[in-house]
Amino acid sequence: MSTKPDVIRKCLWPACLVGLLITGVLSLDCNLLHFHLRKVTWQNLRLLSSMSNSFPVECLREIKAFELPQEILSHTQPVKRYIVEAFYEMSIQAFNIFSQYTFKSTWENDYLKQIQIGLDQQLQYAERCLEEEEKEEDDSKEMEEDGINHSEATVPQLSNLELRRYFNRIDNFLKEKKYSHCAWEIIRVEIRRCFYYYFQKFAPLLRKK
């Protein structure tokens, strides 16, 4: 599961022309991360809900616990950069999952395209913000080299490994179930839970900044 962002965009370019209308100017300003996160997360949550009218009763017996990581930030006061990295990781992993969809009779193709467009836009936004964070870090290092002292803050470390393992469990489940109708319905609900959980976790932290 290692699809590169540039490959993703090449495949989605025609659809992205339409998708550009979805996120608007918020995607241009990393200082508005909280508002952007809320906008695209709720957009994707609505799409994931709309893809199916209700969860099939016959699939209940196949539900599996995928062990969503509860803590991916090592401290209670995370730096914005690490939230953006988590945002990026979830977006690319979820995109790779939905790119494998081949069960034609279950979900409408339009919903899948809209989900992929939204995830691609999240990737572009996260990349832009990470680049800005790196530039700020470089500027800060230059200031320190010039003799300007800064108080050292505790910097948390993000473990994307846990997120990757989580999405690998989802991927393996789909393969084991041979991409069945029930497997896709279970995954749809699980990824929706993932987005909702981390949005609820990150949004208050970003508001404090």
UniProtKB/TrEMBL annotation:
Signal peptide: none annotated. SUPFAM superfamilies: 4-helical cytokines. GO terms for cellular component: extracellular space. One of its GO terms (molecular function) is type I interferon receptor binding. One of its GO terms (biological process) is regulation of DNA-templated transcription. InterPro entries: 4_helix_cytokine-like_core, Interferon_alpha/beta/delta. It holds the Pfam family Interferon. Keywords: Antiviral defense, Cytokine, Disulfide bond, Secreted. It comes from the Eukaryota. Its main location: secreted. It is found in: Secreted. Transmembrane segments: none annotated. Belongs to the alpha/beta interferon family. This is Interferon 1FA.
